[in-house]
Design goal:
This protein is mainly α. α4 packs across α8. The longest helix is centred in the N-terminal third of the chain and has 16 residues. It is extended and about 80 Å long. The model has no long low-confidence stretch (mean pLDDT about 80).
């Protein structure tokens, strides 16, 4: 309740409708300010995540590039291998840390149908998100990883050592030997 000198203000200034569920104005302001800050913050935290070749880059190159620039020497075009880091760097297609010197980025962003990679006749394309991943990967050093199938398992997996006492604690499955199971093939469809 307002004190006597301030009581007249309640007759002049209308009070907002409040309920026990209406948050105070400062709380609403704080939530709105937090949403605004989150919306306006640059997404640098997403861009700084390390790019992994096997997870992020190999699928892009495998889908769009390896058919013509991969391990098959009979199908290889322009004597360029993008599946081999040394060859990709020696050819100038990829220059680790330097976007302007990496011709792969120039070719995939080209509008010229004679220069663009992958060529339009293949029906393949590289999305803007994939281009951005390639740029980040090149800026991070364009590190290759061997295919996961050729990476040895980091640790040997051993089976747990089970004793008779621990096995005895597992409840046994109780089966009624006298029951008939004629209803096994009956269902609502039958």
């Amino acid at each position: 309740m307002l004190s006597a000198p301030l009581h007249f203000l309640s007759t002049i200034i209308p009070t907002p409708l409040t309920s026990p569920f209406t948050p105070p104005i400062y709380l609403r302001f704080a939530v709105a300010l937090a949403c605004l800050v989150i919306a306006l913050c640059p997404k640098h935290s997403l861009a700084s995540d390390p790019i992994e070749f096997n997870r992020d880059i190999r699928p892009i190159l495998s889908d769009a590039c390896f058919a013509c620039h991969g391990p098959d020497q009979h199908a290889r075009q322009a004597d360029l291998r993008l599946d081999d880091r040394d060859n990709a760097i020696a050819s100038g297609a990829i220059t680790p840390g330097k976007l302007d010197a990496s011709s792969i980025l120039e070719r995939i962003a080209s509008d010229d149908p004679d220069l663009v990679m992958p060529p339009p006749k293949t029906g393949k394309s590289i999305s803007p998100e994939q281009r951005e991943k390639l740029k980040q990967w090149i800026l991070q050093g364009a590190l290759y990883q061997p295919h996961w199938a050729f990476v040895p398992v980091a640790q040997q997996i051993t089976a747990p050592n089970l004793s008779r006492e621990s096995l005895a604690k597992i409840p046994a499955l109780k089966i009624d030997a006298n029951a008939t199971y004629d209803a096994w093939n009956q269902s609502p469809i039958d």
